[in-house]
Amino acid sequence: MEKAELRQSGIVVLKKLAEHPKKKLKKEETILALFFASRIWKEAKVIGMIRSTSFEFNTESIMKRAWAENKVVVIPKSLPKRQLAFYEVDERTAYRTTKFGVDEPVSALHVSKEEIDVLLVPGIVFSKEGYRIGFGGGFYDRYLAEYQGQTCSLVFSEQLNNQWQPDSFDLPVARIFTDSYKGVTYE
What we know:
By secondary structure, the protein is of the alpha/beta class.
């Protein structure tokens, strides 16, 4: 199956899961328990993540826990030429919704790649090796090409699919946290 088809079917799967909020929340709680117990979380001081849409893995509880543990949260803004830049946010940060439906912070507190300890990389479809299919803009692939910190993704078992080949420019995340371990590799 082609990436475009997988992307579209993956979005359908995520939206169907979102129609069952109790099931989605239970899966999120399972994944978050693993993530919060990990060395990646415990050692991170600066955490990059998106502000999720309604059908994606909900990142709000991660932000709240990070702030409670005095960690810094950074959220991306899209730039020209499909680039990303991350900005520090807190509970009072305002957001604007882009034409793609993504919330970006109204913040001038830019944080460099070198300052981000762990990046929670979003996606729609993931292979067990950590390769991902995102929304198709290539923003994260470009960012990850020069990022040296830890990478991981929080993935519902419904998003796992090994029936595709990554492109030469695709970069895998180092670790996947999921509610199903079958076939998933870890470091």
